[in-house]
Amino acid sequence: MRHLGFEVSEVMEGSLRKPGDNFDREFRFDLRVVFPALWRILTVAIGRARGTCHIDGVAGNAPAVGTLELAPFRRRLARYTFTFTADDGNEYRFDGWKSAGWNPRRSWTTLPGKVYEANGDVWATATLHFSFRYHFPGLLGSFRFLWPWRRESEPVEVPAPALYG
Fold this sequence. Notes:
Order of helices and strands: EEEEEEHEEHE
Number of helices: 2
Largest sheet: 8 strands, antiparallel, barrel
Number of strands: 9
Shape: globular
């Protein structure tokens, strides 16, 4: 059965620091996320995310593919997980989550996360930011309903291992 879905684009910018570095690198991602069922936002909605990831000196607008898990009412959580291939040819995975509390200005603006190597070791830590002044208008402008009779159903990618039990 097909349901009313939605898609949205999100941009977050911040910094990344590798262990041993004494400087931060600019880190930015721009993802288009497709949620196949709007009603799932009441429990846990998992959307397919595709876009680009840019890390100064590491990945220049590398394609990024993953998921965005939204559980604003049940778990008060938003979790971003995506993989990208850096300029060195190695594949990395970003995993970040933020509280989706009832005060959006305070709780939705910072996304801490980690970047993992293919073997699962932490390669770097990151802190990304969402600006209500700069990013929110673009987020609102990108929102689009996906009418069930106008699209083919596409499978949702499997999310990263659970953070919670």
